[in-house]
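Homework help board

Subject: predicted structure for assignment chain

Our instructor gave us this sequence and asked us to write out the predicted structure in C-alpha cell form, then describe one feature. I got the C-alpha cells but I'm not sure how to describe them. Can anyone check?
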Amino acid sequence: MARSHAHATEFRQVLKLFALFGHPLRTIIFQRLARTPMTAGELARTLPITRTAIVQHLKRMEASHLVEAVADGKMRRYRILSQGLFPLAQWLKRHGAR
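My C-alpha cell output:
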C-alpha cells in the first residue's frame, strides 16, 4: 500500500512537470536558464512577453523546484535546479525509458 501511494505521489509530480513544460515559453525559459543563469529582465529582453509575465512563469517553476532565485545585488538571478527533474527521471527509469 505504501509503495503504491509513493508511486502515485511521484506520478502526480511528473504530471505537474508535464503541465509546466506544456507551456512553450516555460520550455524556452528553462532551456535558456540551462545555458546560463539570468534575471527576469534579461529573459524578457529576448522573449515576446513582458518581464511581469516572465516573473509569473518563474514563480510557477520555482514552486516546482525547477529553478531558484539567487540574490545578485538588487536583482534576482534565476538558475535551474536539476533535482526538480528527479521525479521525472525516476519515473522514466522505472518504466524502462532509455
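Reply (TA_rk): Your C-alpha cells look well-formed. For the description, you could write something like this. The first strand starts at residue 38 and ends at 39. That's the kind of observation they're looking for.
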